[in-house]
Amino acid sequence: MSKSSGKWRWVKWVFIVPILLFVAVQLYFLLQIWWWVGHNPGMTSFMREQQSALREKNPNANITQQWVPYNRISNNLKRAIIASEDANFSDHDGVDWEALQKAYEKNNKKHKVVSGGSTITQQLAKNLFLSGSRSYVRKGQELIITFMLETLMDKERIFEIYLNVVEFGTGTFGAEAAARHYYGVSAANLSAPQAAKLAVLLPNPRYFDKHRDSNYLARRTGVILRRMGSADLP
Question: N or C: which end of the chain has fewer CB within 10 A?
Fold first, then answer.
């Protein structure tokens, strides 16, 4: 074997194999999303991560989550989450580029990733497949999954899955579990104030699960209540 052929083989291993692995991972994500167009997800990446953390303290611990269809979730909660998390959800292609630019500028000022500028679709991409870590590599993968979701699913299906898998507190996932955990009612029967407060929990649900009477929650809930009327539902 000549030195040149040996060098080429080394180049193939270094460059081609990682590319093939990357493509295989993306194909896995794509097939999963295609399946979820007509089937409901089970455990998400975030759920598995949280359950594993809970079981370090209690081997019998489990997360709480109960799937409910889109029409059995209060429109109050849908409007509150859109008003709080992603006002342009019904109109954008999965990414709010202006918000992303602002997050990038904020991260540059802080010299670290402190803000993601994520839409509801991006949050769902992260919750389904990724972790809560912050890096530009993870953000890039999140964007790829986001475009897959927006390509294969309509907005209502994206929002339905999001409402059923998003984390609302320690071990509490989805609208039904959250409504019963915080208020003892079903997701269908959430009032506007209750829905607004649940939406405000989302950026830091485990913290606010333990600090439900904070002044910030009260102020922010009032803001979201005022914005809910203008929220467009998919």
Answer: N
